[in-house]
Amino acid sequence: MPDQNSVFKALSDPSRRKILQMLREKDLTAGEIADSFNISKPSISHHLNLLKQANLVIDERKGQNIYYSLNVTVFQELLGFFLNFIDKEGEE
Questions:
Q1: What is the pLDDT of residue 5?
Q2: What is the C-alpha to C-alpha distance for residues 32 and 71, in angstroms, rounded to an integer?
């Protein structure tokens, strides 16, 4: 799993969580993501960069566009991280 601090930092912002929910439905370009927000495109780019640094999203160039998608593997690892707490409680 990537640095947990970067993952939790990325998840701490409501705009980034909304981006992740949007990407759960389908892969999107930065422009398509920006259309759903009332913030500047540089701000969207900043949010996407933080999500990429945390490995929560993957970007892939297709022709002229860059498409963003969820990195499901990191979410599975994060879920395992939390489930580990539950398993430990049951052992005590």
A1: 85
A2: 18
DSSP-H helix ranges across the chain: 4-11, 14-25, 30-34, 41-53, 72-91
> Residue 63 — pLDDT band, cuts 50, 70, 90?
very high
Question: Burial code of 13-38, b = ≥16 C-beta within 10 A, e = fewer?
Answer: eeebeebbebbeeebbebeebbeeee
DSSP label at 50? H
Q: Tell me the two tokens of residue 32.
A: 């398509």
Structural tokens at position 2 = 């990537």
| Amino acid letter, 69 | S
Spatial CA neighbour of 10 closest among 43, 57, 42, 54: 54
Residues 29-52: tens digit of each pLDDT: 999 999 999 999 999 999 999 999
Helices 72-91 and 4-11: crossing angle, nearest 10°?
110
